[in-house]
Design a protein that fits this description.
By secondary structure, the chain is mainly beta. The protein has one helix spanning 11-16; strands spanning 21-29, 38-49, 53-61, 68-78, 83-90, 97-103, 109-117, 125-134, 140-147, 153-163. The radius of gyration is 16 Å and the shape is globular. Strands 1-2-3-4-5-6-7-8-9-10 form a 10-stranded antiparallel beta barrel. The model has no long low-confidence stretch (mean pLDDT 92).
């Protein structure tokens, strides 16, 4: 069996395991041009895929009245590259988000860099960051932000996750 088929589990892999379980989420999105900001609630189930990956399965109301949104985030750590890797897919979009990120020195904030559609910025693509912060009380916060043409960052979505 090759080394890729028998991964060495690291402290970074074990760090991700603290997300396992059932979560209630409240959040919101900034207003699109000419629109109103949105707020929403949802649930998330996080389970392990072996010891190397976690799967974060979300469900909540969709953008159309009476619709449902489902999402799947995968997160793991690649020791050979020295970074966290992952993906995000959601039922209300066709873009697959590919993550690469780092954990801060205090092991409380995971910043995931990605690229995707430049919402409301005249088309094209933009750099994004999904930032997952762990609070001392066990709450976790997700902030998504998009880099603007001038290099500044604009928050586009936030969520607060509490264990059920």
């Amino acid at each position: 069996m090759s080394d890729n088929m028998a991964p060495s589990i690291t402290d970074q892999h074990r760090w991700l395991l603290q997300f396992l379980g059932e979560w209630q989420m409240t959040g919101g999105c900034t207003a699109p041009p000419g629109g109103e900001p949105m707020t929403f609630e949802g649930r998330e189930t996080v389970r392990a895929l072996g010891e190397a990956w976690i799967l974060c399965e979300g469900v909540g109301p969709g953008p159309a009245p009476g619709s449902e949104m489902r999402s799947l985030m995968t997160l793991g750590y690649d020791p050979a590259r020295g970074c966290f890797l992952g993906t995000f897919a959601a039922s209300m979009m066709t873009h697959l988000w590919l993550y690469q990120g780092q954990l801060d020195a205090d092991r409380r904030v995971l910043t995931l860099d990605t690229e995707g559609p430049a919402f409301g910025a005249g088309g094209g693509t933009a750099r994004f960051q999904d930032i997952i912060a762990l609070e001392a009380d066990g709450t976790r916060r997700l902030t998504s932000r998009m880099q603007q043409p001038d290099g500044s960052w604009q928050q586009v979505m936030h969520g607060v996750y509490r264990r059920i």
